[in-house]
């Protein structure tokens, strides 16, 4: 196994799931990594590793979600590993790029893992093996969205629960805002 993939595998292996669905996702990610030497690359057409982060405000009262341009869903910030086995660095890079907030700080270790199928327009359906973090925004942070979103907006947990029905996004929001 290549070093970069071994780093990613070690991150997932060290993650301690709390819920059965998280344990199942962790097991699926580890099995996928063990079977695919190219799991860190988009060229792995079946699926690939991604890193994402739920950005929360300094008061820990709101989460910043993006209305994803391609998928049409409200999601946390995140993206493809593109060969980088340091999934925390991937999550932080993507959260910074997509939120426009400098000075984000990741909480230690993944908060969650998730396996989900995506089918962006013009692409084949594939699976994202996502390692998810919580990122704290500095006090007074102002978001500056990039071209990947239609909108970014701060939500309280109650607003997320009222507006979003995706179980994995709800789970991450509850973890991040608990």
Write the layout of secondary structure elements.
Layout: H1 3-14, H2 20-35, E1 47-56, E2 62-68, E3 74-75, E4 77-80, H3 87-99, E5 105-106, E6 112-118, E7 126-136, E8 149-156, H4 157-163, H5 167-176
Parallel strand pairs: 1-7
Antiparallel strand pairs: 1-2, 1-4, 2-3, 2-8, 5-7, 6-7
Helix pairs in contact: 1-2
Give structural notes.
The protein is of the alpha+beta class and 178 residues long. It has a single domain (3-176), classed as Nucleoside Triphosphate Pyrophosphohydrolase, CATH 3.90.79. It has helices spanning 3-14, 20-35, 87-99, 157-163, 167-176; strands at 47-56, 62-68, 74-75, 77-80, 105-106, 112-118, 126-136, 149-156. Strands 1, 2, 3, 4, 5, 6, 7 and 8 form an eight-stranded mixed sheet that branches. A hairpin with a 7-residue loop joins strand 6 (112-118) and strand 7. It is globular, with a radius of gyration of 15 Å. It starts with a helix and ends with a helix. The mean pLDDT is 94.
Mind summarizing the main beta sheet? 8 strands, mixed
Mean pLDDT: 94
In CATH terms, the superfamily is Nucleoside Triphosphate Pyrophosphohydrolase
How do the helices and strands follow one another from N- to C-terminus?
HHEEEEHEEEEHH
Shape type: globular
Count of DSSP-assigned helices: 5
Number of strands: 8
Measured as a percent range, the helix fraction is 25-40%
The CATH topology is what?
A: Nucleoside Triphosphate Pyrophosphohydrolase
Q: Given this structure, which CATH class is correct?
A: Alpha Beta
Supply the number of structural domains: 1
Quaternary structure state of the chains depicted: single chain
């Amino acid at each position: 196994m290549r070093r970069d993939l071994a780093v990613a595998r070690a991150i997932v292996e060290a993650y301690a799931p709390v819920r059965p669905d998280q344990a199942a996702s962790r097991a699926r990610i580890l099995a996928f990594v063990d079977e695919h030497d190219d799991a860190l690359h988009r060229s792995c057409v079946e699926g690939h590793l991604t890193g994402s982060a739920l950005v929360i405000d300094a008061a820990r009262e709101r989460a910043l979600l993006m209305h994803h341009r391609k998928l049409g869903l409200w999601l946390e910030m995140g993206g493809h590993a593109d060969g980088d086995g340091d999934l925390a660095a991937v999550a932080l890079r993507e959260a910074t790029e997509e939120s426009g907030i400098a000075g984000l700080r990741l909480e230690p270790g993944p908060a969650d893992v998730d396996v989900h199928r995506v089918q962006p327009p013009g692409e084949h359906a594939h699976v994202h093996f996502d390692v998810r973090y919580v990122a704290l925004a500095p006090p007074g942070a102002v978001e500056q969205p990039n071209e990947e979103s239609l909108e970014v907006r701060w939500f309280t947990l109650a607003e997320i629960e009222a507006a979003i029905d995706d179980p994995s996004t709800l789970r991450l929001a509850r973890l991040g805002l608990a």
